[in-house]
Write a structure and sequence with these properties.
4-stranded antiparallel sheet, 14 helices, 17 strands, about 15% strand, globular, binds 4'-deoxy-4'-aminopyridoxal-5'-phosphate
Length: about 425
């Protein structure tokens, strides 16, 4: 790949063969407005490798059948692949048991499930739910809804100017009234990685259970739910190179066992009569109706792909690329980087003096550079920094220093047009 702009700093030494990796992603190889696509919107959704596309296609072409129900061969194949993916997700998260792995529609549904099932059964009037100021709307609004329904109070741990949770304030906000803590493992608007292991221990000391939103973490570094000791952990398939409409809720078995079902219907029952229904065992108690079978199988293929590359190799490569991009962007006059946490992954949120973020997005698109502009479903973060929106470039392991150079060139172009 040719350099589109003279690089001002040394390019990172990739620990993984990025050219080979890029060959696995068909959508990366196209031109947009006559320029090679630089896809830097990975926090919104990631591109899919051939193995994921093929797994979904194979299911529909060859194995299409409902799961868990039929004795016929196609149903058995589909069920084996579906349950095989559950085991892959278990290993990926290092969960103790596959009974702790519930397939859901995405991170949003996982959080709503915990709010409405665990929350309604365990949280009451006067209790408190604690989240952080950097949460995605999907880790805010379900708790607001629940608090309104139950007469509970939502508390918010503040972040500092760098975009890190102020741990002393977090600790002070924990009390015997705190029933649940919701924390992003990695912020989608700032890239900050929270010290969730420590935050979980503090929450447990106060008697609260902990839900970790891992939507932006799992694509970038290894996650071990047993080491974190969190009670719930949520994943979003489409942010980790899998299909849309599929995600994972991990929950500790004892908690899931005690929780009432979230939705009623087929699959989640053992026995139904008009007098009485006996619910199914875990995890099926939480998987009412025909699931997104192709999505689960595609997610299994995505997990294989990620583990094949190695999460440590991914993290190393992305750390270097983020460093390269941070140095590159920091040198641009008028550019304000929002989110400079010491522990950070793959996200560059910024504003450009005199240019509205939406105009940045349009100009970038004409340069072939795909980024996201807006509030990133984290309006409180925008309020915290006093901006209506930011431009956000988000990196993946298939991105290159040349694409970061294209990003910098697009910023210079935007400055020229509006400067
Ligand atoms: N949490 C975070 C931190 C996210 O970035 C997102 C997606 N932008 C979500 C939750 C919601 O994920 P999903 O699309 O799977 O519902």
């Amino acid at each position: 790949m040719s350099m589109r702009r003279e690089s001002v700093i040394e390019t990172p030494m990739p620990p993984l063969d990025v050219a080979r990796v890029r060959a696995d992603f068909p959508a990366l190889h196209q031109e947009v407005h006559g320029r090679p696509l630089a896809y830097l919107d990975n926090a919104a959704t990631t591109q899919k490798p051939f193995t994921v596309i093929d797994a979904v296609e194979r299911y529909y072409r060859r194995d299409n059948a409902n799961v868990h129900r039929g004795v016929h061969t196609l149903s058995q194949r589909a069920t084996a692949d579906y349950e095989g993916a559950r085991e892959k997700a278990r290993v990926f998260l290092n969960a103790h048991s596959s009974r702790e792995i519930v397939f859901v529609r995405g991170a949003t549904e996982a959080i709503n499930l915990v709010a409405q099932s665990f929350g309604r059964a365990n949280i009451g009037r006067g209790d408190e739910i604690l989240i952080t100021e950097m949460e995605h709307h999907s880790n805010i609004v379900p708790w607001q809804l629940l608090s309104g329904q139950l007469g509970a109070t939502l508390r918010v741990a503040p972040i500092n100017d760098a975009g890190e949770v102020v741990l002393e304030d977090y600790e002070k906000l924990l009390s015997p009234r705190t029933r649940l803590v919701g924390i992003a493992h990695c912020s989608n608007a700032l890239g900050s990685i929270n010290p969730v292991k420590r935050m979980t221990r503090l929450a447990h000391d106060a008697g609260a259970v902990v839900l970790v939103d891992g939507a932006q973490a799992a694509p970038h570094f290894a996650v071990d739910v047993q080491a974190l000791d969190c009670d719930f952990y949520v994943l979003s398939g489409h942010k980790m190179y899998g299909p849309t409409g599929i995600g994972v809720l991990y929950g500790k078995e004892a908690l899931l066992e005690a929780m009432p079902p979230y939705q009623g219907g087929g699959e989640m029952i053992k026995y139904v009569s008009f007098d009485k229904t006996v619910y199914n065992d875990l995890p099926y108690k939480f998987e009412a109706g025909t699931p997104h079978i192709a999505g689960v199988i595609g997610l299994g293929a995505a997990i294989d792909y990620l583990t094949g590359l190695g999460l440590d190799a991914i993290a190393d490569y992305e750390r270097e690329l983020l460093h390269y991009a941070t140095v590159m962007l920091s040198g641009i006059p008028g550019l304000r980087l929002i989110g400079c946490a010491r522990d950070k992954a793959s996200i560059l949120s910024f504003t450009l003096a005199g240019v509205h973020p939406h105009d940045i997005g349009t100009i970038f698109d004409h340069q072939g550079v795909a980024i996201r502009t807006g509030h990133h479903c984290a309006m409180p973060v925008m309020q915290r920094y006093g901006v209506p929106a930011t431009a956000r470039a988000s990196l993946a392991f298939y991105n290159t220093s040349e694409e970061v150079d294209a990003l910098a060139a697009a910023i210079h172009e935007a400055k020229e047009v509006f400067g």
